[in-house]
Amino acid sequence: MVRDILMSSLGELRYEPVPKRIRGLIAGQVVIDTDRALLVWEPKRVVPSYAVPAKELEHVTSPAAAGNAAMADQVPSGPGVPHIGDRPVYDPSVPFAVHTTDGAVLDLRLDGIERRAAGFRPADGVLSQYVIVAFDAFDEWFEEDERNLGHPRDPFHRIEIVHSSRSVRVERNGQLLAASSRPYLLLEAPLPVRYYLPPEDVSDELLRPSSTRTLCAYKGQAAYWSLRDADDIAWSYPAPLREAAEVTDRIAFFNEQVDLTVDGTRLERPVTPWSPR
């Protein structure tokens, strides 16, 4: 029910106070150091951004340079954008410069360093006193004294890892990629269950390491695995964050791109931002 409530509010501009000290650094300089940050979800966004009181950023922000206005909400709602089920959503692959509410774009400047369109001051009520900042415009982020990766953490988002003895088979185009009765199930709504398998239960003849790396705010840095005809179809966490420590070095496949059979039942391929577009 909570998931449905949150998904039904995707079309709204939402915000939530952050009860933590938030710091953002550029080139080793502390640009943001606040205990009054907000998490802000612009309409359609599934991942929040930090917002900082405008007064705390007055010394480093200025109106965006000419020709550096925000991109309008022009991303189509067809198969070219991410979906969760039948709902189009904006995940981090949709640039920060795409805004779905009215406001003013700001540039960030300090000591000869410029981050164009790295700030956005919404026109809406309470939020008009805040500047939403682009996570990727900063080199490092900290929540209290812990490094934050990927994007701000959502207080309504969590992961749960459950050990299982279910039989799991992974196939693609009729070819067996993995078979295990020792999966760890990682639940992370609204995403589908991910089945993390011991590497010895995965075919090492078919998978090859990929150079791709991604960051997850809840699990850490992922390394990827590819097939000859499918790039980055599986991933693992060699050194995950503590919340995901139990899946260290285990391998999971994108349910969206393989055929998963669990206890003899073939699962439908879900529609998520990782589905083929």
Structure summary:
The mean pLDDT is 92. It is built from 1 helix and 24 strands. It is mainly beta and 277 residues long.
Provide an overview of this structure.
The structure is a single chain. A hairpin with a 2-residue loop joins strand 23 (259-262) and strand 24. The protein folds into 2 domains: 2-147, Domain of unknown function (DUF427) (Metal Binding Protein, Guanine Nucleotide Exchange Factor, Chain A, Beta Complex); 160-266, Domain of unknown function (DUF427) (Metal Binding Protein, Guanine Nucleotide Exchange Factor, Chain A), CATH 2.170.150. The radius of gyration is 20 Å and the shape is elongated. The chain is 3% helix and 41% strand. The chain starts with a helix and ends in an 11-residue tail after the last strand. The strands form 6 sheets. A 7-stranded antiparallel β-sheet has the order 1-4-5-11-10-9-6, with no helix packed on it. Strands 3-2-12-13 form a 4-stranded antiparallel β-sheet, with no helix packed on it. A 4-stranded antiparallel β-sheet has the order 16-15-23-24, with no helix packed on it. The protein contains 1 helix and 24 strands.
